[in-house]
Write a structure and sequence with these properties.
By secondary structure, the chain is mostly helical. The chain is built from three helices and no strands.
Amino acid sequence: MSEPRHPDRPHADLSHPEAHRPAQRGWVTWALAGLVVVLLAVTFAIARTHSPDAQFGGADSNAVAALEEQGVTPWFHPVLVLNSPELESGLFAAQAALGGAVLGWAVGRLQSRREIRRLRESRRADVDDAADDTVHRDGPGDGV
C-alpha cells in the first residue's frame, strides 16, 4: 500500500511526524504580523498624543540641522541632487526592495540547501536500510 501524499508535494511523506509542521506554523506567522501592526499603531498613537502637530522627520535631516547649528561644514557634496522629495523617497524604496529581494533569495537558497541535504540523508538511510534487510534475509555469505 502506498503512503499518503500531499497533492502539491508528491514526494512528501505525510506519515512523517514533521510533514505537517508548516501548516501548524501558519497561525504563528499571522499572530506575529498582527503583533507588528498593533505595535506600530500604538507607537503612532503615543507619538500623536505627546505632540499632535509634530511632523515625522528623518534622522538624517535632524543630524544635518544639529551639525549646522554647531558650525560644522560638510566634507563633500552630493553627486546627484534630486528636485523632489517624492523622487528621493522612491529611490530609497527601490533600494530597500532590492535589498529585500537579495535577502529573500539568500534565505531561500540556504533553506533549499538544508532541504536537499535532508533529502539526500534520508535517501542514504533508506538505501542503507534496504541493504541491511537484504543481508539479514539472505544471511551473510550463504548465497548458494
